[in-house]
Amino acid sequence: MFEEFAEDTRAVIDSALVEVGQRGDQRLGTEHLLLGLLHVPVSPWARALGVSLATARRTLDEIDRSALAVIQIDISRVRLGGTPPPATKGIPWTYAARGVIKHAAEEMVHRRGRSLEPKHILLGILESRRPDLASAVLDQLAVDRTAVRNRLR
């Protein structure tokens, strides 16, 4: 699958893996792909989204805290120690993240592209809906998905 990825796309996936490691997660999800897209703020796809990496991370953290609060877990006083281990390329992907890549590949074929580009991944993420975490982040940040699609096209 990865042989059809553009160089920029490989960098996005590598950045998503960095996010997996930093968050201490066990699988790469759509939220990691979203954060990976934002690692290069001057990229056309990050500019089209109009959200900073720091803002998206903060929003994702708020969503996590809210979800934990529902089951009466308060992590406000928890101090994380040490640096989480970096994620490896062998880390499993969530079903939703694989679905984003599938949608991105369909978008690439539809546009007669030769390789899967980051904009295709973003278009795939824009199709996601709650309870997907990337979708929750976009919703909480009031991202206009139609406007982002138009800027990408």
Automatic annotation (TrEMBL):
Transmembrane feature ranges: none
Domain Clp R: start-end pairs: 2-153
Domain of life where this protein originates: Bacteria
Keywords: Repeat
UniProt keyword Repeat, yes or no: yes
InterPro entries membership: Clp_N_dom_sf, Clp_R_N
SUPFAM superfamilies: Double Clp-N motif
Transmembrane keyword on record: no
Protein name in UniProt: ClpA/ClpB-like protein
Natural source organism: Nonomuraea polychroma
